[in-house]
Amino acid sequence: MSKSCNEERAGLDRGSISRREMLALAGAGPVLLLAGGLKAATRSQTRKPNILVIISDDQGYADVGFHGCKDIPTPSIDSLAQNGIRFSSGYVSCPVCSPTRAGLMTARYQQRFGHEFNTGPPPTSLMEHVGLPLTETTMAEVLKAAGYVTGAVGKWHLGMRPQYHPLERGFDEFFGFQHGGHSYIKLAPDDYNPIQRGRKPVHEKEYLTDAFSREAVAFINRHRDELFFLYVTYNAVHTPMQATERYLKRFPDIKDQKRRTYAAMLSAMDDGIGAILKKLREVGIENDTLIFFLSDNGGPTQANASSNDPLRAGKGTMYEGGTRVPFVVQWKRKLPAGKVYDHPVISLDIFPTVVAAAATQMPADRAIDGVNLLPYLTGEHRTPPHETLFWRSGDRYAMRQGKWKLVKLGDRSPELYDLSEDISETTNLAQQKPDLVQELKKALNNWESKLQKPLWTPSRRRR
Ligand code: CA
Questions:
Q1: DSSP H or E segment with residue 281
Q2: Residue 456 lies in a domain
Q3: Are residues 328 and 395 in the same domain?
Q4: What pLDDT shows up at residue 140?
Q5: What is the mean pLDDT of residues 113-135?
Q6: How far is the CA of 412 from the centre of ligand 1 (A)?
Q7: C-beta of residue 313 within 8 angstroms of C-beta of residue 66
Q8: Mean pLDDT throughout 444-455?
Q9: What is the pLDDT of residue 443?
Q10: Residue 295 has pLDDT above 70, yes or no
Q11: Distance CA 133, CA 98 (A)
Q12: Mean pLDDT of the chain
């Protein structure tokens, strides 16, 4: 901790002040002292926000009201866009679950540290080296060190071995499961992938999506007077396709039974997000909570009847349907409402953004790929946050630079799309623009030179 922060803490000890206020002021920096002491700082100028990151699993780009979904109302997710900013080109760093989460937790392209593939079913998932490498520093560790209470609720999918457990990676509390998927009903005790409270397996009786919502609400209530980071990772709307009558009966008009079940699962999650937001309002901290919502990858349309329209393909692919997702941010105190941000952003940006909001620091001993989005979202910076974005999964690559998207799949010739004219990636322009293809390939090669070999090989089952 810097000298100035220590001086401020010493000063704060003289007065009557809550832990939340003390932590908030401690991060405000020397400006306070220069401005003539603590009295010059108002709460609204110095208050650090709570951090809430909500992830859905395998939700399609088109399956939110703010992207035009008609058959499944998502009023609570939509409210985040109405009260915040939605990203029309919001990406994740991988088209499948676990690598995206590794990137999100570290703000680094996960291929930099070999977390390139899903952790797979046993025996791969149970190997000692399969999990978010212990050399990485997580968002939870950084926020915990900055005085935040940290909680994870839901699907972890960053390693099954004890050393990769959320409680070893910066979280004070955990309720959820460690692997990549779970049943939603008939939650009998399961030796391999149990629902856990902390590290202890529990017998959960509620529909799992409702249970996660209940636990998230309880966490907020428990820590309402503290600064907190809550990471809520629903496994909805990932397979298995399971819903309860309570939600199914909302969709009598959807004839496709898989789509109807998907609708019910999504509706349950939206209700849960509504309950979480209601709790924040009830306890008076909604304005001071920075909230991100996104899906961890695009929809696997065959598996769960999701829709990525108008994007091409879906989960597991290098096309837009694999990596462009519903993605919103809300922070009522600091960010505008009802805005659309069109420059590309990526899930790697969440960690630097919340660290800036929390007035703390990113790890300084390693390359960070994410960008603090706050000055871009407030309009202070008008340039795009990223010149280029890259994806790699084995021998499949993609890259975005401005309006251009390069796709390179194995031995096939490169494909080039102009996303400003062709969001559906229907017209390959590689033949017409060979110089541009070469330029993009060079940038891709340069990026790849900084990556490691994958630490484990892919499994056939995608989770
Ligand atoms: Ca997923």
A1: helix 257-282
A2: no
A3: no
A4: 98
A5: 95
A6: 26
A7: no
A8: 98
A9: 98
A10: yes
A11: 12
A12: 91
Instruction: Determine how β-strand 396-401 pairs with β-strand 388-393.
Output: antiparallel
Residues 25 and 76 grouped into a single domain = no
Q: Is residue 371 part of a domain?
A: yes
Residues 230, 334: Cα–Cα separation, whole Å: 19
Among 201-205, 209-213, 439-443, name the one with the lowest average pLDDT: 201-205
Please give the distance, rounded to the nearest whole angstrom, from the Cα atom of residue 121 to the centre of ligand 1: 15
Q: Is 463 inside a domain boundary? A: no
Å from CA of 160 to ligand 1 middle: 17
Q: Which segments within 105-163 are labelled E, that is strand?
A: 149-155
**Which of 350, 377, 404 corresponds to the end of one domain?**
377
Sign of CA dihedral 33, 35, 37, 41: negative
Instruction: Identify the residue whose tokens are 């540290």.
Output: 113
> What is the number of residues in the chain?
463
Distance 151 CA to ligand 1 centre (A): 20
- Domain match, 21 and 165 both: no
C-alpha 183 – ligand 1 centre gap (Å): 15
Residues 368 and 398 both lie in one domain: no
- pLDDT for 29 equals 38
Please list the active-site residues: 97, 157
Predicted confidence at residue 354, as pLDDT, reads 98
Q: Which CATH number fits the domain that encloses residue 159? A: 3.40.720.10
Find the domain containing 355 and state its range: 50-377
* 119 Cα–ligand 1 center, Å: 12
Which amino acid is residue 80, in one-letter code?
Answer: L
- For residue 460, tell me if it sits in a domain: no
Q: What is the pLDDT of residue 5?
A: 33
Residues 58 and 42 in one domain: no
What number of H helices and E strands is found in the chain? 15, 16
Place of tokens 């033949």: 431
Same domain, 434 and 300: no
Phi and psi at 254, nearest 5°, equal: -85, 115
- Whether residue 210 sits in one domain with residue 160: yes
Number of domains in the chain: 3
Residue 70 is encoded by which pair of tokens? 């008609």
